[in-house]
Amino acid sequence: MQICKLLVLGFTGIVLSLLTWADAAETLLPEPAEIPDGLQTVEFFSPAVERNMKFDIVLPSGYESSTDRYPVLYLLHGYMQNYTVWGRNLAAAYYAREINDVIVVLPDGGNSWYVNYARSEAGQKNDWEDHIIRDLIPYVDENFRTHAQKEGRAISGLSMGGFGAFALGLRHPYMFASIGSTSGALSFARTQAAALEAGITPQAANLPERSLEQQRQFAEADAFIASVIDIEDFSTQQERTPGGVIFETVGQAQTYDPFTILYDVPKNQIPHLYIDSGTEDGLIREAKELAQILMLNNVPFDYMQTRGRHNSEYWRRSVGHMMAIQTEVMQRALGNRP
């Protein structure tokens, strides 16, 4: 009984974190953001999710006038965020141009956690891992001058996106030179597995009700953000939340758990790993736990913690550090550094 109570409390913590992220997401776009230099939006059809999707991409200055190829960094957004947040609101486009020898791609994964759903409903197809791995990355490599190889590819994300980057990166280590996370919800799949093992269906958790005024404010923010996202049938938060069940069994959840699948990758094949978190962010516990595991197993990695919370102020500071390190890792892997 005590174990079940602890598991319920653990899952409740995840739910509360989701609400924190949602509140943070609602304040990220108080007004339309200017389109930064070098940023463009691309629309393409993704068979993995059977819909047209969009991503922002930031190209280096001089890209159009050169024939050079560039490494690519994929930055995954957080829960209730979207493909526009990193580049237009969280300074990723600015740092991309400052670094200037990297292409930065900003995908959209809705509220999917970047996994292939165990069961989709409402006529949807929700293979969000495949959307990134099988659809988006090949599309970028085919349509832009990239180094289409492991040495020229890195993936990172914030919060939900940090989990997604580590889950996808460790499931496909042959594709990435570096995996990164800032404020990552790294234990999401592990918590889902624990809930399922205790007989709890995670999707059935009840979120706290909003007051009428909170509902009104949320509806206004949702409508505004939907107009910015502008993806047909995939712009409001309801549309962006997949219909179905993310995991049906403990085993399914464990196949996406970074704390589990880390041991499935031979040590000499693990990509470079980067982790950071704010010291006032509750998710720093997960960052520290993973760092300890990596140290005990003698796995090289970069770790940073600085003052900050789980919010845009922290991410605007952390993204430049993360991008600089991962770009340097790719350039060294490509033989472009002494």
What CATH calls the topology is: Rossmann fold
Instruction: Assign the CATH class.
Output: Alpha Beta
State the share of residues found in helices, binned by percent: 40-55%
Total strand count, please?
Answer: 10
Global shape: globular
* CA-atom Rg in angstroms: 19 Å
Order of helices and strands: HEEEHHEEHEHEHHHEHHEHEH
Mean pLDDT score, rounded?
Answer: 90
The N- to C-terminal Cα distance equals 59 Å
The parts where pLDDT drops under 50 for at least 5 residues are 1-17, 21-29
Briefly say what this structure is.
This protein has helices at residues 2-26, 85-89, 92-99, 128-143, 160-171, 188-197, 212-229, 237-240, 250-254, 258-261, 284-296, 312-333, and strands at 39-46, 51-58, 72-76, 103-106, 119-120, 153-157, 178-182, 244-245, 272-278, 302-306. The chain is of the alpha/beta class and 338 residues long.
Description:
The structure is a single chain. The chain is of the alpha/beta class and 338 residues long. It has a single domain (2-333), classed as Rossmann fold (3-Layer(aba) Sandwich). It is 42% helix and 15% strand. It has helices at 2-26, 85-89, 92-99, 128-143, 160-171, 188-197, 212-229, 237-240, 250-254, 258-261, 284-296, 312-333, and strands at residues 39-46, 51-58, 72-76, 103-106, 119-120, 153-157, 178-182, 244-245, 272-278, 302-306. The strands form 2 sheets. Strands 1-2-4-3-6-7-9-10 form an 8-stranded mixed sheet, sandwiched between helices. Helix 11 links the parallel strand 9 and strand 10. Helix 1 packs antiparallel against helix 6 and helix 3 runs parallel beside helix 12 (312-333). The protein starts with a helix and ends in a 5-residue tail after the last helix.
